Amino acid sequence: MRKLMTAERLWTGARFIDKPAVLIEDHHIQSITSLLEASAPAADEHLDHAGCTISPAFFDVHIHGAANHDVMEATPEALAAIGKFLAQRGTGSYFATTVTAPMDATLRALEGLAKLLSRNSEPAAEARPLGIHLEGPFLSHARRGVHPPEHLQEPNIALFDRMFEAAGGHVKLITLAPELPGAVEFARHVIAKGVRVSIGHSDATAAEAAPVIAAGAVSATHAFNAMRPLNHREPSILSTVLSCDSLFAELICDGVHVAPEIVRIWWRMKGAKRGILITDAISATGMPNGMYKLGGFDVHVADGVATANGVLAGSVLTLDRALENFLQFTGAELDDALKMLTANPAAMAGMEEKTARLATGSPANLVVVNPHGKRIAGMQNGIKL
User: Residues 237, 143: contact at Cβ < 8 Å?
Assistant: First the structure.
């Protein structure tokens, strides 16, 4: 069945097209044209979204779970539930993000995720995990957040190699506190294996962060959160995150983790080329108030805030809501904001050809948003959501 989708604009992940006509068949995009230049191709169903923008489905590089499931369960049932939920909220791909845990539990989770990431499956209306983000255990005790202190580790190349092997090489991103002993050598080692380094959960000064950035770190994990704060006489890691033009920076835009006024500062510093919106979502996302799991520990969720022992423990945010919040907080243009959920995470991860692009022959993974960023419709693998 041939479906035709039209709208006011289309963001391909690389450029904008006015009055687009997207033809979809057999789960893939067959053509993208502009009605300003050609007539609409024939189709069995026409889906018109007047006044709206079509975008590649969003890419979340930092998410622990949703729909009452955690990625560290590493079962087909867990990832299917998470994937279905995310697709309904506009996210088409993600990095399954771990949390610090006993090493045997972490290795079991990585082995399970490796099997699921390696399998061939039929096209479905589910967001797809493209790799693994290791958020821990190589984090600062001083800025650990809710990561269990007894399981934190100093950078250890042999231990990382065990984790990388257990994950079948699917580790794509790792959060690292740059002030830890051996962090520079560790960063060089993991980068040589094709893993991107994100600095975070860190009490580093700017001087301590600089060598790991020079070694090749490309991003910063949830800017402002679990970082030494700004000090006008002693520049911190946050100073570097905000001022370094080459560094991408994640942001949890739920109005809880970062106040709207600070979101505006982040936007002015990182801009449309280096900002990345993430969720840091946990299993409670999409669920009512109650007790949920993040990795191996309990998290209490009430009124949209997730905490463990009084400390923020991830979020219940979705990327479509993050987009709406961001536009409301900053007054930014939709065209710029969409880049922070599509092109920027893909560029940071080195996955421009695998996700966040709409082109002839690519899977029909897309989302439709109105001028305020509200999700109106979407497709995953050409299946209407």
Answer: no
Q: Are 377 and 54 in contact (CB under 8 A)?
A: no
CATH class label, 3-54+363-384: mainly beta
Q: What is the pLDDT of residues 179-223, one digit of tens each?
A: 999 999 999 999 999 999 999 999 999 999 999 999 999 999 999
With beta carbons less than 8 A apart as the criterion, state whether 373 and 56 touch.
no
Q: What is the CA radius of gyration of the chain?
A: 20
CATH number of 58-349: 3.20.20.140
Query: Is pLDDT above 90 for 120?
Result: no
280 is catalytic: yes
Q: Which of 70, 203, 280, 320 is catalytic?
A: 280
CATH 3.20.20.140 in the chain: give the residue spans: 58-349
Question: In which residue ranges of the chain is CATH 2.30.40.10 found?
Answer: 3-54+363-384
Rounded Cα–Cα distance for residues 17 and 125 (Å): 26
pLDDT in tens, 252-268: 999 999 999 999 999 99
Cβ atoms of 8 and 45 closer than 8 Å: no
pTM across the whole model = 0.98
